[in-house]
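Much of the work behind modern protein science is quiet bookkeeping, done one molecule at a time. The protein below has been through that process, and both of its lines are reproduced in full.


***
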Amino acid sequence: MTRATKTYEERILKMDQKEQELSEKLRQYQAKKKQLESAKRKDDERNRVHRLIPIGAVVEQVLGRPIENEDLPKLERFLRQQERSGSYFSRAMNQEN
């Protein structure tokens, strides 16, 4: 009995087909990864916004008026000055109740 062996051309063709299948799978995985990274960025941004809104609300409540864009540099200068003067803001934020 003779065993039928594939020719080199058949084996090369089979490997080319497998390579194309794997390339397609790789493209699919890359697309899925890109979708997940995009979803993560959106989720991170949403979480950041949800974290910042209450902070702004507290500042407005303490200030007694809405914060305007021109107030932001003043608020930043104040907080930085507090930090330079003795890390008052950091210490206050890190205190246990």
Q: What stands out?
A: The longest helix spans residues 8-63. The mean pLDDT is 93. The chain has two domains: 8-65, 67-97. The two ends are 88 Å apart (CA to CA).
